[in-house]
C-alpha cells in the first residue's frame, strides 16, 4: 500500500512538473487562440445568434397553435346559469379552448425574411473567418515579440560575459600599472549599464509573455512560457508574385470583401421585405372551445300546485292582471365532467384579410430607409475594396522593405562583429582605450539586436502577405 501511494505521488508530481514546464510553440499558440480567444468566442456567438434568427424565420411559416384553460370560483350575488336568477352563491366554472392561426400571404415577407436570415448567417461566418485571421496575426506578432525579447536578453548576457572578462583583465592591468585607472572606471560603467539593460530586458520578457497569455485566454501567467527556438524565414517566395495578382486573389478570398458584399445583399433583402407591407395580408384561423361548471342542472319541472300562477303585469286600459304559469324546477347534480365538455363545445374558423390603406406613410418611409441603407452598403463595399487594395500595397511594400532591412542588418552585424574583434585585439595589446572599446562593443550589440528585430519583423510581414493571398491560417508556415 505504501509503495502504491508513493507511485501515485510521483506520477502526480511528474504530471504537475510537466504541466509547469510546458513550452508553447507558435503553432500551438495560434491553434489555442482560435479556440479560446474571447473575441473569437464572441464572433462564434454571432453565428449562433444568426441560427436563432433563421429558426425564427422558419417559425413564421408554420401555424401558431395555442391552448388556454381556466378554472375560477365566483362567490356572492351572481346569476345562476341554470335558472337565470340572481342569487348569493359560490359557483365554480372552467373553460378550455385551442386556437390555431396560419399566415397564408403577407406580401412574401416571411419567405424573404427566411432568405435574409440565411444571408445573415453567411455574413456572420465571414466575420468569424476575419476574426480568426486577425487573431492569428495578433498571436504571431506577440509570439515573435516575446521571442525577440528572449534572444535580445541572450545577446545582452553574452556581451556582458565579455565585459566581465574585460573587467577582470583591465583590473589586473591597472594594478600592474599598464593601463590607467580611467580605463577601469570606463569598463565598470559599461558593466553597470549592461546589467541595468539586462534587468529591463527580463522585465520586458515577462510583460510580453503576459500579453501573449491574455491573448490566448490563459490565466496562469507564472507557468506560461514559449519554446525558445530559432524560426526560419519561410514563405518569402510569396513576394515573387505581382502585387496585382495578390490584390485579385484577395478580392476573391478575403473576408473583408465578402462581409461587405453580404451586408449589401442584406440591405437589398430589407428593401424587398419592406415593400411587402404595400400588399394585403391573408390569414386563416381555427378555434375550438368548451366549458364546464359545478352548477347544478334542472332534472325535472312543472306547475307549482300550491301557487299555479304568478303575476307578470297588468293591462293599462282595463287594469286586468296578466298571469303566467308558475313553473318550478328541480335542481340535480351537474353532469359528469367529460359529458359537459362534449355538450358545450364549439368551433369557429375563417379567414382574415388586412388591406393597407393609410398608415401614416410608415410603409413608404420604411422602404425609403431600406433603399438608403442599400446605397450606404454599396459605398461600404466600395470603401472595403479601396481599403483592401491600400492594405495590400502597404503589406507588400512593408514586406519587401523588411526583406531589404533584414539583409542590410545582417551585413551591418557582420561588419560590426569584425570591427569589434579588431577593437578587442587592439584593446588587449593596449593600442586603444576602454572608451573606444566600449563604443565598438555597443555598436556591435546594437547591430545584433537590430538584426533580430529585422528578422522577426520580416517573418511577420510575410505572414500578412500570405493571408492576403488567401492562404488559410492553418497552412501558414513558420
What characteristics describe this protein?
elongated; 8 strands; disordered N terminus; alpha+beta; two-stranded antiparallel sheet; 62% helix; 478 residues; signal; single chain
Low-confidence stretches: 1-20
Please list the strands of the largest sheet in the order they lie side by side.
1-2-3-8
- The fraction of residues assigned to DSSP E strands is 15-25%
SSE run: HHHEEHHHHEEEEEHEHH
Give me the count of strands. Answer: 8
Mass-distribution shape: elongated
- What percent of the residues sit in helical stretches (DSSP H or I)? 55-70%
The helix tally amounts to 10
Average of per-residue pLDDT values:
84
* Straight-line N-to-C gap: 50 Å
Calculate Rg over CA atoms: 44 Å
Note the main sheet.
Answer: 4 strands, antiparallel
Structural class category:
alpha+beta
InterPro entries: OMP_efflux, TolC-like
Keywords: Cell outer membrane, Coiled coil, Membrane, Signal, Transmembrane, Transmembrane beta strand, Transport
Subcellular location: Cell outer membrane
Coiled coil: 243-270
